[in-house]
Amino acid sequence: MSKADRHQGIEEAYALAEALRPALHRLHRQLRRESGEAGLSPLHALLLVAILRQPGIGVAELARMEKLRGPTISGHVKAMERDGLIARSEPDPNDRRRNGLVATEKGEKVIQSLKQRRTDWLACELVKLSPQQRAAIRAAIDPLMEIGQ
Predict the structure, then answer these.
(1) Predicted local confidence at residue 4, as pLDDT
(2) How large is the average pLDDT for residues 89-94?
(3) Phi then psi for 86, rounded to 5 degrees?
């Protein structure tokens, strides 16, 4: 690849990024609104999904994973426990001070409902597009997933 081709590729990538970023931001914002409509803050939805993906995760691990301070996470964990979304697991046999976090049945149902609301909203918007537009979005899914890795 020549230096000119590489430069043109970089310029195209920047132009595409400038066009894509606001579209993704608007889409993300609208999907986040669905969590508010479900009575769950976006942060609690994020934490609950993380706990569902890693049952038994500790508060400190959760804080590191989400790049939040321990005291911040602790307050949210207590609120989610109080709301019946999560519970503490049995103490770790190797460290009796450590209790992991697990989603309750209520927490699982809330996330399932939230995912369904988001899917329903997105499907209603996609059906408004032409078949060609939907095909273009379908073709973009794999490359977008690759970027998000």
Answers:
(1) 74
(2) 70
(3) -135, 165
Note the helical H segments in 38-130: 42-53, 59-66, 70-82, 105-126
In eight-state DSSP terms, residue 12 is: H
Which residues, at least 6 apart from 32, have a Cβ–Cβ distance to it below 8 Å? 42
Length of the chain: 149
* Integer CA distances (angstroms), 130 to 32, 71, 127, 133, 134, in order: 25, 48, 8, 5, 6
pLDDT value at residue 116: 92
And the tokens for 36? 């508010």
Asked whether the beta carbons of 101 and 59 are under 8 A apart, the reply is yes
Using DSSP's 3-state secondary structure scheme, residue 143 falls into helix
Please give the Cα distance from 101 to 49 (Å, whole number).
12
Amino acid found at 5: D
| Token pair in block for residue 30 | 């609208």
Report whether pLDDT(90) > 90: no
Helix (H, G, I), strand (E, B) or coil at 67: coil
Residue 95 DSSP class: E
How far apart CA 127 and CA 52 sit, in angstroms, is: 31
Q: How far apart are CA 68 and CA 46, in angstroms?
A: 12
Residue type for position 71: P
pLDDT at 98: 64
